[in-house]
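In the lab's daily routine, each protein ends up as an entry in a very long ledger. A line of letters takes care of the sequence, but it says nothing directly about the fold. The fold becomes a row of whole numbers, each drawn from a learned catalogue of backbone shapes. The protein below has been through that process, and both of its lines are reproduced in full:
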Amino acid sequence: MLAVLLVLTTVGGVWLLQDKPHAASPGPADPAPPPPSTAQSSVDRCAIVWFTAPDLTKVPRSACHGPRYTNAGRAKGFSHDEQGAVFAAINLSMRLSAAAGPAVFNPTFAEQTVGDSRAAVAELAGESTTARPAEVRPTQWWSRVSAGDPAGDLVEIELLAATAQATASGQYAQLTVVLRWNSGDWKVQLPRRRAHAASSTTGFASLGAIPGAVS
């Protein structure tokens, strides 16, 4: 079981002031500066914000890519593109783990997966780990699309996570998540793949270090 796996970043402006010489007679008034824009820039809207999932893992979200709804420990409303698929793969995987608790994983399996959810829930009872939670929490995430089309109906996302446990052996935790675009959102295709160790981040894009995470 991957108890937890996989964890980001923003700008400003400067006003320049210039002295004007005194004029003998008043001239035309200087044009008033344009009012500051109240619209949030696309850079700010799409910046990653890290929040705590029910299993205490830090997971990513943004106004651009979701999740837009996180009530009752859930995560719904992802964008139909690569970043939305990556965010869905991370957020939903953390909620489909035993560590999230039955109040979260039962409805997540029932509503946000495609396939035999009853068998998947039954498998959780056999999952166990001797690692302390802090040893398997991610300090950084990487991702890539390994198959399918994130703008289509089916995509395969590969995730890598740096964790204290994996780093101690010079490796990363890797999880492959297959997602289907169904009823206007990403859902996890069952059965799920088991996590395994990986030795390199080559070919993967980093989501950046999780603020406050310790390697």
Q: What stands out?
A: The chain has a mean pLDDT of 83. The helical segments are 42-46, 82-95, 102-111, 117-124, 133-136, 164-168.
